[in-house]
Structure formats: C-alpha cells, structure tokens
Design goal:
The structure holds two protein chains of two kinds. By secondary structure, chain A is mainly alpha-helical. Chain A is built from 16 helices and no strands. In chain A, helix 6 crosses helix 16, helix 8 crosses helix 10 and helix 15 packs antiparallel against helix 16. Chain A is globular. By secondary structure, chain B is mostly helical. In chain B, the strands form two sheets. A two-stranded antiparallel ribbon of chain B has the order 1-4. Chain B has a two-stranded antiparallel ribbon with strand order 2-3. Classes of the chains: A mainly alpha, B mainly alpha. Chains A and B meet through helix 1, helix 2, helix 7, helix 8 and helix 9 of A and helix 1, helix 6, helix 7, helix 8 and helix 9 of B.
Chain lengths: 293, 344
Amino acid sequence: MSTQALSRTTPLKIISLALVAAWLVIAAFPFFWTLWGSFKVQADFFSKADWTNALTGAETIRETGAAFTTRGYYGAWVQEEFWRPVLNTLIVVFFTVIISLTFGTLGGYALARSGKRYAFWILMAALVFRAMPHITLVSGYLLPFFEWNVWGILPTTIIVLVAINQPFTLWMLHSFFLNIPKDMDESAMVDGCTRFQAFRHVIIPVMWPGVITTGLFSFLLAYNDFAVTSMLLSSENETMIPAIASFLGTTQVEGNVMFAVAAVVSATAPLFLLVMFFQRQIVSGLTAGAVKG
Amino acid sequence: MKNRTFFWFILPTLSAMVLFIALPIVSVFIQSLHIEHEQVLVVSESCGPFGCSETTAVDAAATEALREAQPLGRFNGLKTYTNRSHLAFAEVAEAWRTTDGFLAFLNRMFNLPFYKALLFTMAYTAIVTPCVLVLGLAVATGVNNLPKLLKGPTIFFSLLPMIVTPLVGALILFWMVDGDGIIGNSLQSLFDDPSLSLKASPALTWMMLMVYGVWHSLPFSFIVFYAGLQTQPKDTMEAAMIDGATTWQRMRYVTIPHLMPLVTFVTLIQLMDNFRVFEPVVSFQAQAHAPTLSWIIYNDLRESGNPLYGSAGATSMMTIIGVAILLMPVLIRTWRDYTRKAAH
C-alpha cells in the first residue's frame, strides 16, 4: 500500500521528471553533437549559413563526395602526429596510477591502523594539500626544475602527478581500510606475523575493490591534468591535453579546427568506455568519502 | 601500530607530499620575494667629428651571466605584492582620491588585473556552488523517482560532464556557443543580431563560464545526494505521510535534514574546486573579461622566454591564503570532532 502511495503521479513528480529529462539532454547532447560533427568538414560543423548543414553535411558532400569524412582524424593523427602525445599520456598515466596506488595503500593502511595523534595531523595536512590549486604548486616547481635540469621530461611529471594525487588517494584508501576489520591482521600478528607480513598476506588479498576504485580516480586525475603537464613538459614530450590546447593555437590559423575536434573526440572516447565499464566503482568512490563524512 | 612500523609505511607517501607539495609552497614564497634582474646596461661614449654622444646598449652576455649566477633574481621584499599587477596599493589609493562615488571607485579598482581575477574567482565560487547544490538535489530526487530500468543509463549520461577532461569539456561547449556553432548561431537568429557573440560582453562571458561550471560539477552533487536518498529511512517518510505532510513538506522536513551532512561535504569540495577554476578560461578564451587567479599565475609563467616567477609567486601566495580562509571552518570543525572523540 505504501509503495502505491509513493508512486502516485502528481504535478510535482511530472515537473521533476521533466527536469531529469532536460538535464539528460544538457549532459549528453554536446558529446553526441561533437562526435557527429567530427566527421564533417569545418564549413558544416561551424556553419555560418545554416546549422542544419551540420546534420545533413551539405558542404561535406560538396568537398569530399560523401556525407561523412575522416579528414579531421587523418589530419590530427597522421599529419599532426597526435599518436605521439597519446603514447606519452599512456606512459604518464600508467606509471602515475601504479606508483600512486603503491604509496597510497601503504600510507592509507598505516593511517587506518594507527590511533595516534600524528596520524590525525597527517590526514589534516593531506586535506589542506588537496585544496591547493595545482597551478600554484607548478609555479614553485618550475625554477628548481630548470636549475636541476629535470624540466620537460616524463619522469618528473610522473613524480609530480603522483605527489599531487597522494592527498586524495590517502584519504580514500584510509577510509577503505577502516572498513576492513582490525581483527583480521591483528589475529595474523598474534599467530606470529610481523606487521608487514600481515599486510602482505591478509590485507592485500582483500583490498582490491578499494584499490581499483581509487585507481580509477588516480587515472582520471593524471589523464585530465592540464596545469601540470602543460607547464612541465617540453613540446616533444607533450601529453594529449596540452597537445589539444596547442592545436588550438596553431590550427585555428590554418583553418584546421576540425583537427582539434577530432583530437577532442579521440581523447573523450576512452573516458566514455571507462564510465561504461566502471560506473559502479566510480559512483561508490564518489560517495565513499561523503557517507562517512 | 608501533611508531617505527608506522614510519616505514607512511614514508613514501609522506616524502612525496613534503617534497612536491609542502616544499614548493616554501619555494613559491621565496620566489615571491624576488624579482627578475634588470638588463645590464653599458654606456659607451662615441666621439665623432661633430662631438661626442653617449649610447646605451644592453650587455646581453653580462645579463645572461647574472641570470645564470642568481636564477632567483634580486631581492625585492614585499614590493611585488603591492605593485600594480597585484594588490596595487598606490593605484587603489589614487582611485579612492580621484573618483567620486563608491561605484566609480569599485569600477576602477576591479579593472586592475589582480582584483579583476579575484572578483571573478569569488563570484564564480559563490554562484556556481549553490546552483550545483540545488540543481543536484533536484535531479537526484527526480532520478530517484524513475523506474529502475532507466536509472542505470541516466546515471551513465549524467556522469559524463564531470568525468570528461575539464579542458576538453569546456572546448566542446565553447564550439557550440561560439558564433558559428549551433547554439551561438541559433541565438543570433533568435535575437536577429548577427554580431551577437557570447565572448564580446563581460556579462555574457561570465554567464557562459558559470553555466559551464554548473554543467561540470552538477554530476558530483547529484551522485552524492542520490546515494544519500538511497539510505533514507522509509519509516520516517511513511510517518510523515500519515501525518498529512505534503510532498514539499516531506522534502523540507524529512529529506533535507537527512541529507544535511552530505550538503556540507559537497559544499566543501565544491568551494575548493571552484576556487581554483582554470581550464575553462583557457578553453573559452575568456581571459579578457573573466580571468581567474589560477589563470593569471599560468599567464605569468607562460610569459614567453622570460617567465615572471616573482609575480606568479606573489599571486600564488595570495591564492593559497584564500584557500586557507575557505578551509578554516572545516578544519576547526574537524579538529573539534576529533578532540571530542579523543576525550571519550
């Protein structure tokens, strides 16, 4: 009976459903529009005459003979060698995630098991560090890195991204380890394990769900970063996002905005897949910190 | 856990944070007290048949050597903080003296680069954060009423604006609202004004960036509130219904109090993230009307060939102070919670 009463249609409910529908269109439409438009020529996607040209591809047919063209992708990937930044991004993201998780699990575990006052202070410091705008930190790196001659190379960027990642990783894994009962590793230690052996044989086998969720967010931070990668990498070591930004500078002049559009679609596609496969983990990760307060 | 074991477990993460987060803040502070060397000038006298003339030339080699020897520049004290492109004490005082009327004064003050960026950053934070909270809650309630089958796909599409790279997401929107894009074009024909451009007027630029901000952050508050709604106790809701509470009253007196801790959490994260807004300014090329603190630091560092470390450092320090002020209430509250827990 109660479910019936809750599911009655009222005007308020209709309004809220309309709102959801409107939000869905606003959230998803830009992506589909850009995906569709990336297979057109510039005169269609940025049509001065008539926006329906982008749907029908009038100019695309006139210029290339077909309604869809992969010219933008060819231009971006082959002509502008977009595969280089993609490769760099893969390297940076892979190592950042691996190192972040290694450091984070060790630290998060220690913080979850230590009841001492200094553990609390480390967590507080991490919260403050989490709030630092990345570009302010970058302005502190540049001069020393130039002096030590480590500017522009991938390892420097990886280490910096790992460090910037730590506060968040630490908080997330800390709250995850709090949920693993203390008795598990303590009973292993009663049986004669050292703390590290207990961690190795008891905690590591059960920690994967939390580590995967945290890893997803580390991945997103490294993949989406612009402030650090655009300032700390030389142009031959550039990753994807700064490469897209520099496309805008150079290609707009040559009238090749479609290269940038194709690159943008290429950079978004992996994220699409990520959300598709890991939706549950992303949602649980976003709410993990919140529910515990 | 023993102190010794704790130390070895925490060492990697702590040293990463100290080396690359804490020390850079110190480094930024030191940089902000210094300023770039002036170019070394040599005055040479050349005498010809019509008398002697003095010429001043830049000694490039000496300048280079000086920069090499002292890369930090020369000591400048707090002068960078007070110069025209930062707190601009002289200019503000001058504006206060010469303009009549408070509005005219504000107008002049907020045309100075630092104050302009500060104003936009604060306005962005102050407007986007509540919008995200309210709309996120509204969408979460709506999705909660959806049939089960539709919830998954709805959440999938809702996540996209947040997951996608900020620079890329902002570009996607920018291409749509640009003069030749679909929305920009439609607006032009709607208002019958072919020169209408969202980039041209400050008010429209501000609005455009804030709309982007809400679009980007709404998924986060939506997901958190949606998760909160799942844990809402059914009994309280039914009791409220039996007592004759309307839908609105149930929302106001049952749901919102239940979600209150989450509201605090989302507000905290949003304040932190919105205060450092940066990428959309680059994507929308909105620096003329809507620079942000992060953007002016970026701009100082990009100053081609000759980055202004001192200037960037000073802005960075003031940004960090801003972040600290924003965080203060949270830190105090967490500290109180902790001491209360420890006392029991």
